[in-house]
From TrEMBL:
Keyword Transmembrane: yes
Protein name: MFS transporter
One Pfam entry name: MFS_1
Organism: Lactococcus fujiensis JCM 16395
TM stretches of this protein: 46-64, 76-94, 100-118, 130-149, 161-181, 202-222, 234-258, 270-287, 293-310, 331-351, 357-378
Molecular function as annotated in GO: transmembrane transporter activity
Residue ranges occupied by any Major facilitator superfamily (MFS) profile domain in the UniProt entry: 10-383
InterPro entries assigned: MFS, MFS_dom, MFS_trans_sf, MFS_Transporter
């Protein structure tokens, strides 16, 4: 269906719901130094908790098709948002490991469910332009929560205050979802057509793009560890560490909106190469122990990463015919999930053992690897 059949008000509601998807995502990264003091956790525990949350988020994609046969979309959205609210309450109220574990389970499953439900709805009704703006609004949610955590930790380092503010925001969005539930009264089940495509054996060259997505976990790694790097290595305040992370998420959000406009008059190759240079500059600035420079580094890292994920997905169809591109995109998503699940755990262990002085070197190494992979990918000619 075309966008014309969707009212402006409904588009607004969907954008608000997608902001709610990003609200809990910066809590662990921005407030981790304060959270681990409260729970007496080692540094590397954030990798384990993040893996738990990501694992249950991935599991929601497996449960969704079964629930979608019986539930309308409004029930799915409301149920998933309730899970997210309860997960945030467990995070803010808990003082031991088990409330934290329950929080990761509920947040992972709830956010994953909202993500797939809204993407399913938007794919059926939204234009490509609206889809790009939709993912930009996720960044607004992450950026907003990061600033909320920064504000809450001023002075007394009360990270729980930030969690409660975010929880209240989610409750208000839940009330909005409930009030507008009749606009989502349709089966959530997605209708996919069976295609009889002759399976072609994929050789190594087809996995270069999925390999890029595996290492694209750098986006999550920066969000998770940037605050801890500022606090543990430079010995700055927790509020400063959270603020630097906020600037990173702000750069990512702004960069995604800007790319939507620059793509009208710049080629995808030019955009990718320019943003790789921005990434390299941002990574290099990470070694300089000045607060202002770290703010700048965070912004540049966010802007540099902004177009890589969405434009990489599009590149599969530029390089290969439809039958192969569909399979590669499925590998892209799988490799990205595996990278975000696996890489933070050993990195957390490394930072625990050898300290956060390794952080800027590791980030720069990831940036160089991503840049080399992109240079190889974008030198290829498009299919006829």
């Amino acid at each position: 269906m075309s966008t014309r059949r969707i009212s402006t008000f409904l588009i607004f509601i969907v954008f608000i719901i997608y902001i709610s998807l990003g609200l809990p995502d910066s809590i662990m990264g921005s407030a981790w130094p304060a959270i681990r003091q409260t729970y007496s956790y080692p540094v590397d525990m954030i990798g384990i908790l993040g893996a738990i949350q990501l694992g249950f988020s991935f599991s929601s994609t497996l449960v969704y098709p079964k629930l979608a046969r019986h539930w309308t979309l409004d029930k799915f959205i409301i149920f998933s948002t309730i899970l997210t609210v309860v997960g945030l309450i467990a995070l803010g109220a808990g003082k031991t490991f088990w409330p934290m574990f329950i929080s990761c389970v509920l947040l992972g499953f709830g956010q994953g469910s909202v993500d797939i439900a809204i993407n399913d709805f938007s794919a059926k009704y939204f234009s490509n332009s609206l889809m790009n703006f939709l993912h930009g609004f996720y960044g607004i949610g992450v950026m907003a929560s990061s600033f909320i955590m920064t504000f809450s930790m001023q002075g007394n380092n009360k990270w729980q205050l930030g969690v409660w503010i975010i929880t209240l925001s989610q409750i208000l969005i839940l009330m909005l979802c409930f009030a507008t539930r009749n606009r989502f009264k349709e089966k959530a089940e997605s209708h996919t057509k069976e295609h009889s495509i002759k399976e072609q054996k994929l050789n190594f060259k087809y996995f270069i793009l999925p390999l890029f997505y595996f290492f694209y976990a750098i986006e999550l790694i920066i969000g998770r560890f940037y605050s801890s790097f500022a606090v543990e290595h430079f010995h700055w305040s927790m509020a400063t560490g959270a603020a630097i992370t906020s600037f990173y998420w702000a750069g990512l959000t702004i960069g995604r909106f800007l790319t939507g406009f620059t793509a009208r008059f710049m080629s995808s190759r030019t955009i990718i190469y320019v943003h790789c240079v921005i990434l390299l500059i941002g990574g290099g600035l990470g070694f300089i122990p000045l607060v202002a420079i770290q703010y700048l580094s965070g912004i540049l890292l966010g802007i540099g990463l902004a177009p890589l994920y969405p434009m990489g997905m599009k590149k599969a169809y530029d390089l290969y015919d439809a039958s192969i591109a569909q399979r590669i995109i499925s590998f892209n998503i799988a490799f990205a999930t595996i990278g975000m699940f696996l890489l933070p755990i050993p990195l957390g262990w490394m930072f625990e053992v050898w300290g956060f002085s390794l952080y800027p070197t590791i980030i720069l190494a990831f940036i160089l690897l991503l840049s080399l992979l992109l240079a190889f990918i974008y030198r290829k000619k498009t299919v006829k």
